[in-house]
Amino acid sequence: MTSAQHFSKKPSLLHFLIVDDNPTITRLIELQLTKAGFRCDTASNGEEALQKISKTDFDLVISDISMPGMTGLELLKAIKQKKPQLQVLIVTGHATIDNAVEALRLGAINFITKPIKFNEVFETINKILDLNYRKKAIITASKYFLYESRHFAIPTRELYVSDLATYLTEPLEQISLVDPTCIISVTMAIYEALVNAVEHGNLELDSAVKYANSAGMAAFKNLKEERLKDPRFASRKVTIKSIIDASIARYTITDEGSGFDYAALVDPTTESHIDQTYGRGIFLIRQIFDEVRFNSSGNSISLILRSKRSE
0.85 exceeded by the pTM? Predict the structure, then answer.
């Protein structure tokens, strides 16, 4: 498979960087990819590769894992720091699970082994092309994004906090309302709000139990499990409403508990409360979101996040 006609997308639109200290291997890969219709550049070591990456927008880096000086794994780390979206395909002459797992853990899209089988290379590239084009489709569509609205009412026993927090915040990165480096902080803030709704709202659990003594954490966990089996608590719902447009995101999370005295909350970072281990969730939420409001009974929190793109 060395012809452009075997690819689902136009190879000529893709620009690759090949990194290997062995010029024979570099030239072999370059010839095969050029014959298939791709544009290629080469680098003989990691340092040269990083210089070229800083000046050119490549679609894929194909790098040997064993090189003098900066190794392929070190290059991969550096690329993911400088350009997290740039895909890296690792080539290894040592087909060890440790190298493969480490490369994938560090963000490589895949790995291939020497001697290089080009049908394997092209199959991997085809998968990368499909992924890249889907991402580009999302980016293109996001230019014309107006707004989206979501409304959920989820029973407590069926609410998976981490999955839901990620699901609710994914659109923020897709439309560039939030910088990719900040999306995890926003997701964590939503996570804290959902935990509060589940544990302190619907399940009526007191965080102070966790820290009452050395057995407090276990006691809290046991009580939580008991209440998740009790229909009086587990059937209560958490209602989540989100409205997102190109400049602002609004979330409202409401539980069916009795609420709490939000006005009595204190700053857990003050000297007199620095040892207090509860109350930090609301503090985190207030650091991330531009506006945080509670309803009068304290069982509903509204969060507003504005775009920082113009700042």
Answer: no
